[in-house]
Amino acid sequence: QVQLVESGGGLVQPGGSLRLSCAASGLTLGTYVIGWFRSTPGNGREAVSCISSSDDSTWFADSVKGRFTISRDNAKNTVFLQMNSLKPEDTSVYSCAADEYGSSCTDPPAYDYWGQGTQVTVSS
Q1: pLDDT computed for residue 11 by the predictor
Q2: Which of 79, 2, 76, 94 shows the shortest CA–CA distance to 40?
Q3: CA–CA separation, 34 vs 5, rounded Å?
Q4: CA-based angle 72:77:78, to the nearest 5?
Q5: How many CA atoms lie within 13 A of 119 on its CB side?
Q6: Strands, E, within 1-101: which ranges?
Q7: Can you give the pLDDT at residue 40?
Q8: What's the start-to-end Cα distance of the chain, in Å?
Q9: What is the pLDDT tens value at each position of the chain, 124 positions in all?
Q10: d(Cα 4, Cα 6) in Å, to the nearest integer?
Q11: Which residues of 13-46 are buried (b: 16+ CB within 10 A; e: fewer)?
Q12: Contact of 94 with 38, CB cutoff 8 Å
């Protein structure tokens, strides 16, 4: 059974940092495109970042470019989202997803598996 489990969310002050983890079981993350999305009520699901399976190339939404980085540790079967210089508008539920065929980095329907999400709250 495939499972993606996110962790690392929490409450942080503006300007702070968090590192989210996406740990997989039942699949090898290194062979999947992994995306991070965030969801807030009324705003739907927004693509934040993704990392390819072929060459580890990355993509970031304009809103997080320069502040977030994405990486994978194949030995731990885990993908990380390092979030720095956090802003109140980054507050959301963050979910990771795995796409076996790499058809689209930013399109949620392209992804085959999803985690349950972890809450990130940026507030003073």
Answers
A1: 98
A2: 94
A3: 13
A4: 50
A5: 5
A6: 3-7, 10-12, 18-25, 33-40, 44-51, 58-60, 68-73, 78-83, 92-99
A7: 85
A8: 40
A9: 999 999 999 999 999 999 999 999 999 988 999 999 999 888 789 999 999 988 889 999 999 999 999 999 999 999 999 999 999 999 999 999 999 987 788 999 999 999 999 999 999 9
A10: 7
A11: eeeeebebbbbbeebebeebbbbbbbeeeeeeeb
A12: yes
Q: What are phi and psi of 117, to 5 degrees?
A: 100, 155
The token pair that represents 18 in the structure block = 């968090």
Q: Residue 10 corresponds to which tokens in the numbers above?
A: 């929490």
Q: Report the alpha-carbon distance of residue 8 to residue 29 in Å, rounded.
A: 18
Instruction: Record the tokens describing residue 81, joined without a space.
Output: 């989202």
- How many helices and strands, by DSSP H and E, does the chain display? 0, 11
User: Which 8-state DSSP code applies to residue 90?
Assistant: G
